Amino acid sequence: MFRLAHLSDVHLSPLPWGGIGDYMGKRMIGLLSWHLRRRKVHKTHILAKIVADMKAAQADHVAVTGDLVNIALPAEFAHGQRWLDELGAAQTVSFVPGNHDAYVDVAWQDGLAGWQDYMTGDLQLVPATQNCFPYVRQRRNIALIGVSTAVPAALHRASGTLGAEQLAALKKLLEILRERGFCRIVMIHHPPLPGQCVTRKALTDAGDLKSVLETEGAELVLHGHNHMHMRETLQTRHGKSHIIGIPSASAAPGEHKPAAAWYLYTVRRQEKRWQIEVEVRNYDGSSDTIMPETPFKLDCG
Asked: Which segments in the chain show pLDDT lower than 70?
């Protein structure tokens, strides 16, 4: 048995101030968006309750699928590093970046490098790609596979891209890991299938990723980005791939998007099939507590 907690779209607040030169171009749009709208959505105390509830469950591992920060300010990356360190040791927390973590083009050493320990694999099965994704972490008979869709996008766009090199490496990894009998859990920020997201926010090569999944299979694909509860099942050559997205981990209840939530996956091997039980834990605004939903099961056969 393996228990995996899933958080996404943390959007750490409050937004720190930078220098005048930090707000050129797209960051200025993001700054205005934060102060006019997003600061009313992403609440520190709600995120703290979500994390406390998750820690109380004592999962074996935590997956965080992107958007730790908001407009990729230098101070935000430092805040993100402190938050990850408080969340757990790098051996027990895996992270993949989202579009807000690449809101503008920031050199690796000035941004994501501070989070590298949470994005480093321990099972090298294919040659490393230029950006070190995908990575694989082995936890008993579970393979956690992190991919990055985080690329700077044009103004008013929140799209993501995997790229041909990363897709080819992922395809080979899924094949090898399937042949070795692993339960394969892919962590990605953007919804992985065509049509799951409006065009300006979508994964540009979702069609190619769908083809990889249909050919090689993956027992579970975890994503965020849409700030919604999402559940899809893709039939592949090797069984079912369950694709699940979750709301923002810091979201206050609102009219258009659900409140903050986290998911707990319990993975078992039974009768030569992978069985996954899913527990959903939602923030309830009326009681200011985290409330459970009825668990459901996923059959990967």
From this structure: 130
pLDDT > 90 in the chain, percent? 86
Instruction: Give the C-alpha separation, 223 to 188, whole Å.
Output: 5
The distance in angstroms from the start CA to the end CA of the chain is: 17
Q: In this structure, what token pair is assigned to residue 144?
A: 């956690």
Q: How far apart are CA 146 and CA 129, in angstroms?
A: 13
DSSP letter at 15 equals: P
Model confidence, pTM: 0.96
Q: What is the mean pLDDT of the chain?
A: 95
- In whole angstroms, give the CA distance from residue 148 to residue 141: 23
For the chain, the domains span 2-299
To 10 degrees, the CA torsion angle through 171, 176, 178, 182? -120
- Those residues with Cβ within 8 angstroms of residue 162's Cβ, 6 or more apart along the chain or in another chain: 147, 148, 149, 170, 203, 205, 208, 209
According to DSSP, the β-strands at 142-146 and 183-187 are parallel
Residue range 158-217, pLDDT digits in tens? 999 999 999 999 999 999 999 999 999 999 999 999 999 999 999 999 999 999 999 999
Q: According to CATH, what is the number of the domain 2-299?
A: 3.60.21.10
